[in-house]
Amino acid sequence: MRRRRRIVTTPCRPDTRLADRDSAVLAFCSNDYLGLAAEPAIADAIRRGSERWGSGSGASHLVSGHYAPHETLEQRLAAFTGMDDALYFSTGYMANIGVMPALVGRGDAIFADKLNHASLVDGALLSRAELIRYPHCDLQALAARLAASDAPRKLIVTDGVFSMDGDIAPLPELLALAEAHQAWLLVDDAHGFGVLGPQGRGCLAHFGLASPRLIYMGTLGKAAGVSGAFVAGQRDVIDWLLNKARSYIFTTGAPPMLAEGLLTALDLIGQGDERRTHLNALIARFKAGLKLKRWQLLPSDTPIQPLVIGDNHEALAISRALDSEGLWVPAIRPPTVPKGSARLRIVLSAAHSTAQVDRLVDTLTRLETLQA
After folding, report:
1. 22, 227, 260, 319: most buried, per Cβ within 10 A?
2. Is the pLDDT confidence value at 43 over 60?
3. Does residue 181 have an active-site annotation?
């Protein structure tokens, strides 16, 4: 159960070197879905940004730490996601623990999917609103809980793409319930932004959704390849968050040079249909090629491909066996996932080749046979 870190000595890429190994490993664990984390154009934009703006912002955004590239980035993110306005946070975790306490409090109710990310759970607890959880993607159970609540303000909270299962939330149905019960719908699209929807505009665009009841959070350290996060929505909602979200108000603004890099990343995401086409082909190839008898590959059409082993010890053993063959696929155990569902969280990237994915498929197939 004890976690440990491994020291990476190369840029983020499939062919990775680690301090505890003499030879390179092929990594299938990074959330760098489009292969932008080591993109030279982004690194060059950050370099030029450091020459123009220096290394730090010097203060919180509301004092003197809000720079021109921050403002431009927020405007671009709002337009890209089809929202009125956006607010740039230093991390996705800070965004989630800031938004919920700013929107609801004592006497209100938050309705949360049981498999939501830990940052959403923590944000709900910090709000002091009643936390009402519903079984994973169970719309009937959620409808019953909404109908039974007399809270004056209701907030439905869900991942867009669930980080450990890789499935996509039923957002059209969730939005219909939000509108029927006069609730907000907060969507954490950490793993959908840049990957799903036309031009990678995210899971709301994937379903063609728009509503004043929607609040959208996207992270910028995964498919965007840099760092940070943003929350987008109606202009008055974003203005409220700017004045009420404690994790935004009471922290030093991110370095403006990162915002310069993110502006380039946003261009590459919008122009990244070729990357997404290649990524989707890899996903289909992996799913079609993996023939299993005991282990279970969960249904997912996203880059997150969870292979459920079940037992903690076996999951760790398989992860170590892969490592010995030069494949880096960490084992995920409880409490990150439910008890009895220890798994390999396999993550594909547009930076992978078909030959690399085939190598993983062949190795997993052989290891399952040896473990039988």
Report:
1. 260
2. yes
3. no
Q: Rounded to an integer, what distance in angstroms lies between the CA atom of residue 335 and that of residue 48?
A: 42
Band the pLDDT of 372: cuts 50, 70, 90. Answer: low
Of 30, 163, 300, 349, catalytic = 163
Rounded to the nearest integer, the mean pLDDT of the chain is 96
> Is residue 172 a contact partner of residue 211, using CB atoms and an 8 Å limit?
no
Q: Are residues 242 and 285 in the same domain?
A: no
For residues 156-181, one letter each, b for 16 or more C-beta atoms within 10 angstroms of the residue's C-beta and e for the rest, the string is bbbbbbbbbbbbbbbbeebbebbeeb
Mean pLDDT of 303-321: 94
Q: How far is CA 248 from CA 66, 87, 100, 106, 120, in A?
A: 12, 9, 12, 21, 16
DSSP β-bridge partners for residue 110: 131, 155
Same-domain pairing of 160 and 81:
yes
pLDDT at 262: 98
Q: Which two tokens stand for residue 23?
A: 């030879």
Whether 8 is in a domain gets the answer no
CB atoms within 10 A of CB 328: 20
> Does residue 191 carry a catalytic annotation?
yes
Query: 206 catalytic, yes or no?
Result: no
Q: % helix / strand / coil in the chain, to the nearest 5?
A: 40, 20, 40
Instruction: Say which of 61, 66, 222, 352 is annotated catalytic.
Output: 222
In a domain, 223, yes or no: yes
Catalytic annotation, pick one of 61, 66, 181, 191: 191
Structure tokens at 296: 């279970």
Q: Is residue 350 part of a domain?
A: yes
CATH code (residue 325): 3.90.1150.10
